[in-house]
Write a structure and sequence with these properties.
425 residues; mainly alpha; Growth Hormone, Chain: A; 2 domains; 4-stranded mixed sheet; 16 helices; RUS_fam; UVB_sens_C; UVB_sens_RUS_dom; DUF647 domain-containing protein
């Protein structure tokens, strides 16, 4: 019994040592306390994403080689090796423009919605891969198709890298971004080796390149699996910072009497592939004072009511203590919001709650007059009744009590237009 017990203890110790070794090799130092709880689920789903990515990339590479004039035996057919090399280098050079375009023009987009832009990057990558896959059908158009494919994939990479960097920063709660990035490389290399190994088996043993139909079918199957895995992995990321989409869900649910939702609940219903601008309530933030007034003119209020008499003054006076102005266009069901100097994320949340109230009650508001100014008055009264005056910060406290980081949220993009407080006071 003593010998048996000693053997079991030895086996248990070996398992524990092996588990520790694997954890040390794959996970950041100090795991699980050094990263957010959503780190491991994300990585577990990212692994098959990488594997399928290498699989479908290998199929497009086979197609490119055939299209440029190199057959499966590695011999040049139809073009000399030098010409093939020139074509290959040219398409790579043209493709580099993609990253230049994204970095120079769209660099500020990924911070607010990295999950969506990572998915957008995947769409570009798949489209580029499809261009490359087409070269085998039209080898005479190799340069055009391959360049289009490389350019499109480069645009995708331009979105993918910064998006993933934001996600890595989210995981690194112990200022250990280097460790998190290094371990991601380990996971990716493992996936790459597995993906390349499976690709060799697929290309050598199955005869998948014997016809374009079988090649395209295999590619499509890998792409579908890859995109599904990518979507699932992104859905595992739980941000506590509010962006436009999460804030709209939060405020709308509250207006409908469902209270303030917790961080995990909002993230679980977040529509990753959809732009926040497409969700209700619709808001145009960063408007000029003129746009706010004109937006309200498009609603039920007669022109004379808003522009004449005390219409404009009443609307401006309503927001004297706020750091925003809001006009409501009922036909468009859209709020036009001007931010004053000093506006922050809490300001946008208050405006969004008012917009959500207007969106819910704009057709049959309780005890509301039919005029645009009257509707605004009722909505602002509802805001103050629910959350108090702006200086009490009741909304911020309520939201933060559910785990949200209001101060670190992305609701006021850098460079957004603001209205001078002296103009509207």
């Amino acid at each position: 019994l003593s010998s048996s017990g000693s053997g079991m203890l030895h086996s248990t110790q070996l398992l524990e040592d092996a588990s520790t070794a694997v954890q040390t090799f794959l996970l950041p130092a100090g795991y699980p306390n050094s990263v957010t709880p959503d780190y491991l689920p994300f990585m577990m789903w990212t692994f098959p994403t990488h594997v399928t990515g290498w699989l479908y990339s290998s199929l497009t590479t086979a197609s490119l080689l055939e299209g440029v004039g190199v057959n499966t035996s590695g011999k040049a057919t139809g073009v000399v090796a030098a010409t093939a090399a020139i074509k290959w280098l040219t398409k790579d050079g043209l493709g580099s423009l993609g990253r230049l375009i994204v970095g120079g023009r769209f660099s500020d987009l990924v911070d607010t919605d990295p999950k969506r832009w990572r998915l957008v990057a995947e769409a570009f990558a798949v489209t580029g891969s499809l261009f490359e896959l087409s070269t085998i059908l039209m080898p005479s158009q190799f340069l055009a198709l391959a360049s289009a494919g490389t350019l499109t994939k480069a645009v995708g990479k331009g979105f993918a890298k910064p998006s993933f960097r934001v996600i890595q920063n989210h995981f690194a709660i112990s200022n250990n971004i280097g460790s998190v990035a290094a371990k991601e490389e380990v996971w990716e290399v493992f996936a790459q080796l597995l993906g390349l190994g499976l690709s060799v088996l697929l290309l050598k043993r199955t005869g998948v390149t014997s016809s374009y139909t079988s090649l395209f079918g295999s590619w499509l199957a890998m792409v579908i699996a890859h995109v599904v895995f990518r979507y699932i992995s992104l859905s595992k990321v739980i941000f506590k910072e509010l962006n436009l989409k999460r804030a709209k869900v939060l405020m709308t649910k509250h207006v409908f009497g469902e209270g303030i939702w917790a961080v995990s609940d909002v993230n679980s219903v977040e529509q990753i592939a959809v732009s926040g601008n497409e969700l209700q309530p619709r808001m145009s933030t960063g408007c000029t004072l003129e746009e706010v007034i004109v937006g309200n003119l498009k609603g039920k209020a007669p022109v004379s009511e808003v522009t004449g008499g005390n219409g404009v003054m009443e609307m401006l006076a309503m927001y004297t203590d706020e750091h925003y102005l809001l006009g409501w266009c009922e036909p468009e069901r859209r709020a036009y919001v001007a931010l004053k100097e000093g506006a922050d994320s809490e300001t946008v949340l208050r405006a969004m709650w008012q917009a959500a109230w207007l969106d819910r009650y704009h057709t049959s508001p309780p005890n509301v007059s039919t005029s645009g100014v009257g509707l605004l008055r009722e909505s602002y009264a509802a805001l103050c009744t629910e959350w108090g005056a702006v200086g009490f910060h009741r909304m911020k406290w309520a939201v933060e009590s559910e785990g949200w980081d209001v101060s670190g949220s992305y609701l006021v993009p850098p460079g957004i237009s603001r209205v001078a407080s002296t103009i509207v006071s």
